[in-house]
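Hello Y.,

Per our agreement to keep a running log of every chain we model this quarter, I'm adding this entry. I've kept the format consistent with earlier entries: sequence first, then predicted structure.
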Amino acid sequence: MAGHDLTPPPRPEACELCGRAAPLTRHHLIPRALHGKARYRRRFDRVERLTAILWVCHSCHKHLHAVLGERELAEHYRSREALMAHPQIQTFVAWLSTKPAGFRPKKRAARRR
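Predicted structure for the entry above:
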């Protein structure tokens, strides 16, 4: 597809949520498991589905998926600002930001229902 840049945003030096300099993973703001579903294919073009990414550390990434389901992420939490407005994520990120880069939390949060 000429003219469509599918390059993810450049990897920053630190997690885009907690700000720690830790190894980073891609968090797709529109979860990849939903990319093939007609509802999301109609709402978001291919470029947006593939490039709407936050670079986050493993701990933040695990916490996002522990707290929020994939449809919830796609429907309501498609930006850093929206994620940071969620009380459980805000609290976790504030706590984790005080820890050293190599720190990994021991217990995963339970997904709320």
